[in-house]
User: Fold this.
Amino acid sequence: MIGCYHLHMLIPRHGRALLLLFMLSGCAQKLPIDEGRMVIALPGAPVNVDPRVATDAYGEQILQMTHASLVGRDGAGDPLPDLAERWESPDPLTHIFHLRPGLRFHDGRPLTSADVRYTFTWILDGANRSPHRGLYRHLAAIETPDARTVVFRLSEPFAPFLSTMVRGIVPAGSPARGYAPPVGAGPYRIDDLSPDGEAVLSAYDGYYGGPPAIRSVTVKFVPDSNVRFLELKMGSVNFTLNGVDPDLLPAASLAGRLVVEEGPGGNVTYLGFNLRDRALSDARVRRAIALAIDRETIVRTIWKERADIVSSILPPGSWAYDPDLPAVPFAPARARRLLDEAGFPDPDGDGPLPRLRLTYKTSQNEVRRRVATVIQDQLRQIGISVDIQSLEWGTFFSDIKKGNFQMYSLTWVGISDPDIFHHAFHSRSAPPDGANRGGYSDFEVDRLTESARREPSREKRREMYRRVQRILARDLPVFPLWAGRNLLVRDRGLTGFRLTPNESYGPVREMRIVPDPATPSTGGPR
Amino acid sequence: MKRYLLGRLLRTIPVVFGVVTVVFLLIHLLPGDPVDIMLGESAVPAQKEELRRELHLDRPILSQYASYLSGIPRGDLGVSFRSREPVLGEIARRIPATVLLAATSITVAVLVALPLGVLAAMRRGKAADYLSGFAAMLSLSIPNFLLGPLLVLLFSVQLGLLPVSGYGAGRPLVLPAVTLGTGMAALLTRMVRATLLEELRKEYVTAAIARGLPYRSAVARHALRNALVPVVTALGLSFGAVLAGSVITETIFSWPGIGRLLIQAIDARDYPLVQGCVLVIALSTVAVNLATDILCARLDPRIRYE
Assistant:
């Protein structure tokens, strides 16, 4: 006789009751927003939350909420008062900052000029191995004539100096302790930080700008983009900036509790060329490639209109951006003529043989791979055969830095000053000294970018950088493609966040939770 | 027994040595410079050289290797390039999460596989057998990166019973553990069925029933016990697969374990952290397999410690 077992026999009656209770308990929990809490999802965990050493984007984003700097930055890249209420530069080598009165750190200690000096001295001390040390190589001395005045003396004029002052200040004597970040003086304090888990922040009542309205903020590290979206949909996450894939945005818009906002972005994607390559050293070939790429179609189909076509690697919101730059149109017929002129005629008319074969390197990011496929198809239309190599990030970036490429695509992230042109296009900025990876060299660009970084006048610098941008638009050492728009997906019950091109989380301090009678937020599952 | 254990422990040394050596060579051969990744593009060459010296990356690779090997017996696995924390501390912080996830998923797998496998064997050729076979094939065919989001859609979004992601021993654990345990449950179900059927055909079972022992008792007391020996062996061997699967599962569910740490370390070319993670995974796999062998011997007295 064969025994007969039923699964319900495996779970005793009291076990079933417990299971039911366990499942029902899921429906009874309150959502964070109902408790006055906001949960922000970041796509990754910060490696470090110490302003003196943090380099990763996630660490920086948390620091924007927790640590105040001498100066902030507006959407155009211009400095704004932060801990310093004002500043002046009596000569190009001297910058004087005046601190606000009554500043205090989260632990109640007064914030004085000594703390400012300590922060930057710590970074400059080679023993501390701060990755930001190179940024302050022009600093010759830091003086503190009184508790509210700091004087920075430079060894040579360096016009982008103010942009380097966006660096969180920590109390004098703070050791670097990995996952125990030093206290700051920003609108939120860090109560708890668990690596790979979450950071719990609470409002700091002593913040000079007044205490934030949302008293508790949890920053959750959610690497999977689908999971991030589902968390938003469920209400267990209330806010994510550039954390939802463009493909999922229509679904986010349809979800009753979510609102999608977008604004101009500051990260410019470009196509890089290796000018040491025989074919690509000819500006006509580079222009032909640019003319053959239909950026509007790519922005419409892959980016779902969530990107702006650009003509410079400087974001359009920057104070130095040249709005009159000539745009490269989509003109495949002109592209073919240029290739003919450059000595790459079509070998067999409508036949399969290409005029030219090129490799295109990109990372394994799904969107980038799709972009590469479309560009491959568009270049095939003008007779250029493209071999796509999609590489793991470390390998890809290593190849790019070594000049081991013909074409590649990358994005400039967080450009804060037009001095980027010196870094990316000066003939002496080849890796490892800079990011001139394609080997571009132009005497006029060298001269202008050197002069501009020494020029204290904003107007004169703007004119110099506009000339640089026009030369680059003529030579096309890289082809600027688009700037992705910043996309905020937030709970309808949150208000007050201002999107900035540099993706700053600073405006979180201005946010509020508002009751939304149209969308009851309680009772849902989390 | 002591001699056997000592022998097994000694045999782990070349295994671990091999793993450490291969990983050390592979990670150093990979393109990508940790100094570039740490310092970013704004760093000047002198600064990079300085950091390279401090991290001992300027030394010949053999010297770095010897230095790493000499630290292992002292428990010194180096300092993480990215977080500047001791590697051992970094790993220790994540071990509880990974152990909790792995242990729960294995428990889920066993709790599902045993009754289903027994049911399928005892009702061979019937609907229950076909259904369990179908469910096992389906579970084996769905990769974790697909199963995880599907479970989230059903249990979190549609039914609202469980959280989408997070860390904890209660409700946040359910979906990751089921995701990780499903494939193993399917494998074990088929194995329990196959080995039990084989035992049921043996003469001692027929003899036991002929002596008047009820069929269920013959299965439960005799056949199942013998059938479990290869199943336990398979369970031990699949521990490595569970740890490998945890890399994906931990990423999907934002679970702060070693798998996720390993991915981050590889991305950052954090050599000491990658080596440390792999060393711990290798050691735990060896330890689990040793424990499996001991358990097998206790289940089947015919197995001797030699």
